[in-house]
Amino acid sequence: MSLPTLLPGATLGMLGGGQLGRMFTIAARNMGYKVIVLEPDTGSPAGQLADKHIVAAYDDENALRELSEQCDVITTEFENIPADVLNKLAETLPVHPSAAAVEKAQDRIVEKEFILSCGLLPVPYGVINTNSDIATATKDLNFPAILKTARFGYDGKGQQTINSADEVEAAFKETGQVSCVLEQRIDLDCEISVVLGRNQHGKSHCFPVSENVHKDGILYQSICPAKVDENIITAAQAAAKRLADKLDYIGVLAVEFFVTQQGELLVNEMAPRTHNSGHFTIDACLTSQFEQQVRMICGLPFGDSKLLSPIVMTNMLGDLWIGKNEKMSEPKWNNLLENTKTKLHLYGKAEARKGRKMGHFCTLGESVEEAQEQANAIFNKLAAD
Ligand code: ADP
Ligand code: MG
């Protein structure tokens, strides 16, 4: 079935109200589309800017009826939307990405099996559903390893470092004995990610690959272009396309990769949505990942995604709002705004908390080295007093 082309004036439904939904809403409204956001939190980043914010749980039947009556297509910014909800909506209108695709990214066990089925390499892992799985899961793994809950982890949450097989049982207990994967901790050369758009005709179009620097399991900076060999870039883009093809994906998909010290490329995880490591596209590409999402779900042609300048994106966590004696105040914005090649993006979150993504800034430069030096200098002068 061919998707109808939805032109400006159509109404796009967004499941989830976070920052990814907000930047999607900005891109869509810029192009003349209407956006309706379904999100239980009042005052959410996307809800604030949408034409309409339905404040209800994702599985609220009245809310889903309202969405399907008023929207022309549904998309998502959040991988934990229940698959049932996506399937229910799909009975009456197009939903991109599909429940089947989103489901593969909701559970690390399912995701890794899927990666293997595509002929790609995940991080070496074992599965732990009950205590009796521990012996098998640890048999072929070297330590240190990382125990990750199979579901609902993000920004390093739900992860514990394990130094020896003896520690697994206690750590598994700590999770409440929910299904987990135990992953080899990889000696990383670097981390990279591929964000791509894929259309209804099975064509994919990748954004330039970024190199991602994490601190404490949370993305700190994305650097583009990535400082890695061209053959790694090509392999990562081909792998991401293969995953998207096998999912018969429509929309924007992100794939995170590890590059090992030995130069091997491993698939870390996928996100069936736009991605933090693709925020640089707003300021350095002709088409942002959010506009590409609009284009893909509306059946429009791809926008050009060429990189126009070296760029570094730096995340701003709530930690920057925490001053001396734990007193909350604003970061020193002047130290950022005085830099003429830096763009500020704030997500409109009322309350800053440690580890919470409050915004990001993008710094352009003649080279990534220069941009990164400037970005780090800004970051170091930003924290509240
Ligand atoms: P999340 O869903 O929280 O993003 P990830 O599995 O991507 O979960 O982990 C977050 C970060 O923690 C990764 O980007 C990486 O920096 C680090 N990390 C996670 N797993 C491993 C691993 N097996 N080896 C080395 N580093 C890891
Ligand atoms: Mg990740």
What descriptive keywords fit this protein?
385 residues, alpha+beta, Rossmann fold, Dna Ligase, domain 1, D-amino Acid Aminotransferase, Chain A, domain 1, 3 domains, nine-stranded antiparallel sheet, four-stranded parallel sheet, binds adenosine-5'-diphosphate, binds magnesium ion
Helix content: 25-40%
Which ligands occur here? adenosine-5'-diphosphate, magnesium ion
CATH architecture of the largest domain: 2-Layer Sandwich
Binned strand content: 25-35%
Q: Radius of gyration, rounded?
A: 21 Å
Report how far apart the termini are: 58 Å
Would you give the CATH topology of the largest domain?
A: D-amino Acid Aminotransferase, Chain A, domain 1
The secondary-structure element order is EHEEHEHHHEHEEHEEEEEHEEHHEHEEH
The largest sheet, given as strand count, sense and whether it forms a barrel, is: 9 strands, antiparallel
- Mean pLDDT over the full residue set: 96
Instruction: Count helical runs.
Output: 12
Stretches with pLDDT under 50, minimum 5 residues: none
Question: How many separate domains?
Answer: 3
Shape: globular
Count of strand segments: 17
CATH classification class of the largest domain: Alpha Beta
Structure class: alpha+beta
Describe the protein's architecture and organization.
With 385 residues, this protein is α+β, with helices and mostly antiparallel strands. It has three domains: 85 residues, 3-Layer(aba) Sandwich (Rossmann fold); 61 residues, ATP-grasp fold, A domain (Dna Ligase, domain 1, 2-Layer Sandwich), CATH 3.30.1490; 197 residues, ATP-grasp fold, B domain (D-amino Acid Aminotransferase, Chain A, domain 1). 29% of the residues lie in helices and 26% in strands. It contains twelve helices and 17 strands. Strands 9, 10, 11, 12, 13, 14, 15, 16 and 17 form a nine-stranded antiparallel sheet that branches. Strands 3-2-1-4 form a four-stranded parallel sheet, sandwiched between helices. Strands 5-8-6-7 form a four-stranded antiparallel sheet. Strand 11 and strand 12 form a beta hairpin. Helix 1 packs across helix 10, helix 3 runs antiparallel to helix 4 and helix 4 crosses helix 5. The protein is globular, with a radius of gyration of 21 Å. The mean pLDDT is 96. It binds adenosine-5'-diphosphate and magnesium ion. The site of magnesium ion has 2 residues, from loops.
